[in-house]
Amino acid sequence: MNYLEKMKGGGQSPPRVGLQEVLWSWIGSFLGLSAVSLIHYKILDETGLMMIIGSFGASAVLIYGAVRSPLAQPRNFLGGHILSAIVGVSAFQWLGGDPWLAASIAVSTSIAVMHLTRTLHPPGGATALIAVIGGDSVHSLGYLYVVMPVALGAITMLVVALLINNIPKNRKYPESWY
User: Fold this and answer.
1) Given phi > 0 = left and psi -120 to 50 = alpha, else beta, which region is 10?
2) Cβ neighbourhood burial of 27 (10 Å; 0-12, 13-18, 19+)
3) Is 1 exposed, middle or buried (0-12, 13-18, 19+ CB in 10 A)?
4) By residue range, what is the domain housing residue 150?
5) 10 pLDDT above the threshold of 80
6) Residue 121 domain-assigned (yes or no)
7) What phi and psi values does residue 48 have, to the nearest 5 degrees?
8) Neighbours of 117 (CB within 10 A)
9) pLDDT tens-digit readout, 112-165
10) Is 8 within the bounds of a domain?
11) How far is CA 169 from CA 49, 74, 158, 166, in A?
12) Average pLDDT in the 33-41 region?
């Protein structure tokens, strides 16, 4: 197959899911992001700390909407976010004077680290990027960014995923811990 032929694809669209699956995905996502947002806005916002980051939106799609995906499992979810946060903060601290380079290094290195540690979680790339482009509120946290918002926010969302995703008889989360 030549190079351009590969771009045609050829696979089929994903199967349609039932309304019950849609409902449980919505409930889980709503409750998970509400828990993280509530902690942020009601407790931490006044202290200048934060708990919610944009990459958690993409994680919600995986851990509440694609619960069987290998990318949604706890090892990938927690490890991908935490390792990527470390990489992102490091990239900013070493290369922050050149944000274009720091951003590129942060995302690319986080992908490599997630591959090497078997923790690939696509929103982790965004977590690394946020560490670089997040502005003074993120930069002032330094490595605290890894703990809060990343680790504590991810743990909060994971607890909700464990509770909600196992209510319906036809859903099971996680498929595996490691």
Assistant:
1) left
2) middle
3) exposed
4) 19-165
5) yes
6) yes
7) 85, 0
8) 13
9) 999 999 999 999 999 999 999 999 989 999 999 999 999 999 999 999 999 999
10) no
11) 38, 20, 19, 7
12) 93
Structure tokens at 87: 């990489």
Rounded (5°) CA angle 72-77-79: 140
Cβ 160 vs Cβ 35: under 8 Å: yes
- Beta-carbon contacts of residue 59 (< 8 Å; ≥ 6 apart): 77, 81, 121, 123, 154, 157
Tokens of 2: 């030549």
Cα radius of gyration rounded to whole Å, the chain? 17
DSSP one-letter string for 101-150: HHHHHHHHHHHHHHHHTT---THHHHHHHHHHHS-HHHHTTTTHHIIIII
Q: How far apart are CA 123 and CA 89, in angstroms?
A: 16
Closest CA to 37 of 24, 60, 26, 53: 53
Per the structure, the count of domains in the chain is 1
Spatial separation of the C-alpha atoms in residues 121 and 174, rounded to whole Å = 15
DSSP string, 50-100: ----THHHHHHHHHHH-TTSGGGSHHHHHHHHHHHHHHHHHHHHHHTTSHH
Question: Does residue 113 contact residue 81 with C-beta atoms inside 8 Å?
Answer: no
